[in-house]
Design brief:
Blueprint (H helix, E strand, L loop, with lengths): L2 E7 L2 E9 H18 L12 H7 L2 H23 L9 E8 L3 E9 L13 E4 L6 H15 L1 E4 L9 E10 L2 E14 L9 H5 L7 E7 L9 E15 L5 H7 L5 H33 L8 H22 L3 H6 L7 H28 L6 H15 L3 H10 L3 H20 L1 E4 L75
Parallel strand pairs: 5-11
Antiparallel strand pairs: 1-2, 2-4, 3-4, 6-10, 7-8, 7-10, 9-10
Helix pairs in contact: 1-3, 4-7, 6-7, 7-13, 8-10, 10-13, 11-12
Length: 502
C-alpha cells in the first residue's frame, strides 16, 4: 500500500494513499455479506445472494462506497504509523481516484504535532512560595474545629458580635420593593460578612421582633450595583456556646489526649496541605518556564476548538452562578475588562496545548512506560474525586472507550514528573524544593537509614527494584472562586466529555 506525505505547513500534512483492489477485497467481501443479509430477492435465501446479483439489484457503487468507508481507517492508520506522524485531530478525507477492480486513491489532510527540539530541562528554574504555617493559622483551624463541636442557644437579649440572628430582608428603590432582592428567615452570624454592606452595623443591638432600615448596594441580581434602602427584621437571636480548647476537647474532637498534641497535628496537616499546593505550583511553573523558550506552531483548528470549549465551560459556570462576565470581573482580580479576560483565556489555552505537545514528545523520546499498576492507581484517584467506586470508573472507561485518554494522561503525568525532577526549584526563602519524597497526602517519605541502603550485592541490578515511581501531576479541580479554571500547562487534561462522566 504505497503512501506519500506532503508537508502543507509545520503543523499540517496531506497524506496520499493508493490501495490496490487486492487489499480492499476483504472489505468488499464484508460489504457483500452485509448487503446480502439486508435485501430480499426472489429465488435466493437471505444472506445467500451472489455478488453479481447484488451488483445488478443494489448497484456496484453502493458496495464500493461501503467497502471503502470500512477500510479507510485501517489504511489511514497504517500510513500514520509508517510515516511516524502524530495527528492532533480528525483527518479530512477525500477519495481522489477510483478505478474499479484496479485501485483506489484517497487523500487525508490532518493537523499533526510539529517538529521541535525539547529544551534542556536541567537548565530550567522555578520559584514557589515557601511553606509557612503560623500560630495564627493553627489557632484559626482550632477555632473552626470548636465551631463544629459548639452549640447555638437562643437568648433574650440584644444581638452582639458573633451572635447568630435569624433575619428577613427586603430591598426597596424609590419606595418600591425589588422582587428579586428579598430573603426570609436567613441565619446570619454577625461579623461574618459576605452579605450586604451595613448589615452588621444595622442588626447589632437589635432584639427579636425589632426592625430597622439601612442603605446599601446590591451585589447580585438584575439590580446589581444599585443603591437601595434595605429593611431588616430580626426574628431570633442566638449565641454560640463553644467548648474550651483544653485536653477534654482534644479527647472529644480527636484521637489525641492533650490540646498540645491536637495543635501539633493541625500544624502538620496545614504543612502537608501547603506542601501539596507548593508541589502543584512547582510543576506548573517548571513547565510554564520551559515552554516559554519554545516557538511551537499550534494548529489553528485545534487552537480554535480548545478555545471554544473553554469559553463554553466558562459561560456555563457563569450561568449556573447567576451572573454575567462583567459582574464576575467586578468581584475578582483576574482582569479589568472582558477583552483582557478572553485574551488571557486564549493564551492559557494555547499554552496548555503547547504543554501537551512537549509532554507527549518527551514521553516518546524517553519511552516513558505505562503499566497496569499505573492505570489502577489512576482509576482509584478518579474514583476518589468523583466519590464513586473504582469498579464504576473502570466500567465507564470501557463503555466510553476512555482507555487511550487515561493512558495519555498517565504518560503525560510521568513525563512531567521526570521534567520537574530535572529542573531546579527553590522557594521564596532560597531553599531547594525536592519533590522526590513527597507523598500523596503531602507528607514526606522518610529518608532511608544507612542500614537500609543496598549493599554491594544489591548494586548489580539483580535484586529488588528500589526505584520509586514518579508521581503523576496532581489533579486540579475547578476553583469555585473562578468561572474559568482551564488546565494549567503542567496539568493538561484528557478530552473526556463532561456529559458522559460516571
Amino acid at each position: 500500500m504505497p503512501s506519500t506525505v506532503e508537508q502543507l505547513s509545520p503543523s499540517r500534512v496531506k497524506i496520499t494513499i493508493e490501495v490496490p483492489f487486492s487489499e480492499l477485497q476483504p472489505s468488499l467481501d464484508k460489504a457483500y455479506q452485509s448487503v446480502a443479509q439486508q435485501v430480499t430477492i426472489p429465488g435466493f435465501r437471505k444472506g445467500k445472494v451472489p455478488p453479481m446479483v447484488i451488483d445488478q439489484r443494489v448497484g456496484r457503487g453502493t458496495i464500493l462506497q461501503e467497502a471503502i468507508n470500512e477500510a479507510l481507517p485501517q489504511f489511514y492508520g497504517a500510513a500514520i504509523e509508517e510515516h511516524k506522524l502524530n495527528p492532533l485531530g480528525q483527518p479530512e478525507v477525500e477519495v481522489t481516484k477510483l478505478e474499479d477492480r484496479e485501485r483506489v486513491e484517497f487523500t487525508a489532510e490532518v493537523d499533526v504535532r510539529p517538529e521541535f527540539d525539547l529544551p534542556d530541562f536541567s537548565a530550567v528554574t522555578a520559584e514557589v512560595p515557601a511553606i509557612e504555617v503560623t500560630d495564627d493559622d493553627v489557632a484559626e483551624q482550632l477555632e473552626q474545629l470548636r465551631q463544629r463541636f459548639g452549640s447555638v442557644n437562643p437568648v433574650e437579649r440584644a444581638a452582639g458580635d458573633g451572635d447568630v440572628v435569624t433575619i428577613s430582608l427586603t430591598a426597596r428603590k424609590d419606595g418600591q420593593d425589588i422582587e428579586d432582592a428579598t430573603a426570609e428567615d436567613v441565619q446570619y452570624t454577625i461579623g461574618a460578612g459576605g452579605m450586604l454592606d451595613g448589615l452588621d452595623e444595622a442588626v447589632t443591638g437589635m432584639s427579636a421582633g425589632e426592625s430597622t432600615t439601612f442603605d446599601s448596594t446590591l451585589v447580585g441580581g438584575a439590580s446589581r450595583g444599585e443603591e437601595v434602602e434595605v429593611a431588616v427584621t430580626v426574628s431570633a437571636v442566638a449565641e454560640r456556646d463553644l467548648p474550651e480548647a483544653d485536653d477534654d476537647f482534644a479527647q472529644l474532637a480527636s484521637e489525641f489526649d492533650t490540646i498540645d498534641e491536637l495543635r501539633e497535628q493541625i500544624r502538620v496537616q496545614l504543612e502537608n496541605r501547603e506542601r501539596l499546593e507548593q508541589a502543584g505550583l512547582a510543576r506548573d511553573n517548571v513547565l510554564e518556564n520551559a515552554i516559554s523558550t519554545l516557538d511551537i506552531e499550534v494548529p489553528e483548528k485545534i487552537r480554535e476548538e480548545e478555545l471554544e470549549a473553554r469559553k463554553a465551560q466558562i459561560e456555563n459556570q457563569l450561568n449556573q452562578a447567576g451572573m454575567d462576565l462583567e459582574e464576575y470581573l467586578s468581584q475578582s482580580e483576574e482582569a479589568e475588562t472582558p477583552e483582557e479576560f478572553w485574551a488571557d483565556v486564549e493564551k492559557r489555552s494555547r499554552d496548555a496545548l503547547t504543554a501537551q505537545m512537549v509532554l507527549d514528545q518527551y514521553a516518546e523520546q524517553n519511552e516513558v512506560p505505562v503499566d497496569q499498576n499505573d492505570l489502577t492507581q489512576h482509576i482509584m484517584r478518579i474514583a476518589q474525586q468523583q466519590q464513586s467506586s473504582p469498579e464504576q470508573v473502570a466500567q465507564h472507561m470501557m463503555e466510553h472507550n476512555h482507555l487511550p485518554e487515561y493512558m495519555t494522561e498517565i504518560r503525560r503525568g510521568k513525563a512531567l514528573a521526570a521534567i520537574v525532577d530535572a529542573a531546579t526549584i527553590t522557594d521564596s526563602n532560597g531553599a531547594v524544593v525536592d519533590l522526590s519524597t513527597l507523598q500523596s497526602d503531602g507528607s514526606l517519605a522518610a529518608e532511608p537509614d544507612a542500614a537500609d541502603e543496598p549493599d554491594a550485592a544489591d548494586e548489580d541490578g539483580e535484586d529488588d527494584d528500589l526505584s520509586a515511581e514518579s508521581p503523576d501531576s496532581p489533579e486540579s479541580p475547578d476553583s469555585p472562586e473562578s468561572p474559568d479554571s482551564p488546565d494549567s500547562p503542567a496539568s493538561p487534561s484528557s478530552a473526556t466529555d463532561e456529559s458522559d462522566k460516571a
